[in-house]
Prior knowledge:
Elements: H1 8-14, E1 26-30, E2 33-36, E3 41-44, H2 47-50, H3 59-71, H4 82-95, E4 99-103, H5 106-123, E5 131-135, H6 144-149, E6 166-169, H7 174-180, E7 185-190, E8 193-194, E9 200-201, H8 204-217, E10 220-224, E11 248-251, E12 262-266, H9 287-302, H10 305-326, E13 330-336, E14 339-344, H11 349-357, E15 360-361, E16 363-365, E17 369-372, H12 380-396
Parallel strand pairs: 3-15, 5-6, 5-7, 7-10, 10-11
Antiparallel strand pairs: 1-2, 2-3, 4-12, 8-9, 11-12, 13-14, 14-17, 16-17
Helix pairs in contact: 3-9, 4-9, 10-12
Pyridoxal-5'-phosphate binds at residues 105-107, 110, 139-141, 191, 195-196, 224, 226-227, 252.
Amino acid sequence: MTQLPVTRESEQKLFFHNYARLPIAVTHGEGVWLVGDSGTRYLDMISGIGVNALGYGDPRLLKAITDQAAKLIHASNLFMMQPQFELAAKLLELSGLSKVFFANSGTEAIEAAIKMARKWAAQSGNTEKKEVLSLSNCFHGRTYGAMSLTAKAKYSDGFEPLLPETGMIAFNDIADLEAKVSGKTAAVFIEAVQGEGGIHQVSQQFIDRLKELRLKHNFLIVADEIQAGCGRTGKFFSYEHLQADPDLVCLAKPLGGGLPLSAVIGSEKVADVLSYGNHGTTFGGNPVACAAGLAMIEAIHEDQLMHNAKTVGDYIRKELEKMAVKHSQILDIRQYGLMIGVTVQREAKYYVEKALERHVLVNATSVNVIRLLPPLTITREEAQQCLDTLDEIFTKE
Ligand SMILES: Cc1ncc(COP(=O)(O)O)c(C=O)c1O
């Protein structure tokens, strides 16, 4: 077999032009390092957009994947499979909730949650209860329902018409929340810490009022934990910092240990919402992905990675705060465990390029936010290398 050149030119020829890929081809990874085809090692502060919680090459994860792959790669949900049962039980134990549905990607978990919310609302007998709300600046995905809930027009421009009876509440604006929710509201979707929106936490006051209004109007609170969940913020679910008490929880990204897997976890209130054939997917809850996810969650607990996320994250914030005194380009720093956003004066893309030249991978979000989502395994010394690189870039700018 001839090997195709993995270059920008062939990328342009082969693919639709929907990804702005970095100009490097990667071949493998080791710990927090991603290795390019030239052998260059990059310090990875992106971890596959918040997926690779254990970094690269964790032997427990590899063993879980290879053992399960040797036994059974796929059978479909026509059958019962041990790894799905184990992971579902673990997610129920961690969340205190009642039921699990597995899918393959974040956006599919959101679609399932929208469908569950509408079905639950229909079962309430109120024929007007259909409205699904989200918060300004949010990101929930790119399929039709998820895109209809996603704030920024750049994701939906040209794809209209969007899902009807959706709407947006201004982020952390209690007056707007009070004005928007009503008896017609089926669900309010929140990210306890917004990721693509630039790393912003929902306020405790907003959550408290949302819970009061749920009592009054009877709607569901859906926590999108796709980016902030699985330990990244220092707790397994980022809503735990706010006691948000959601009815539905969406998980994805790290859930499959790097393999495609997502989940919707639901409370007793929605436990009976679906019936046979109502919803489903051929690949959802793939046994290899579930075995990987279980190994990933066990490793997070065994290695106290939530504690590491908190301590290394706190360290990065303190060092960035010191840097901000020296460098006026840094306008704001927001940090929740290892979910870190640094607002800068110019487009964050500039820093992505400069860091890449120095073999450090950082990400830009919300135009002028440098986002750091390293593996939860990162040490203080490895984090220091990223900090030194950013300091050098700010100094030379
Ligand atoms: C909070 C949040 N929700 C949903 C999604 C969509 O997930 P996926 O890209 O797996 O469809 C993302 C992806 O970045 C996300 O960050």
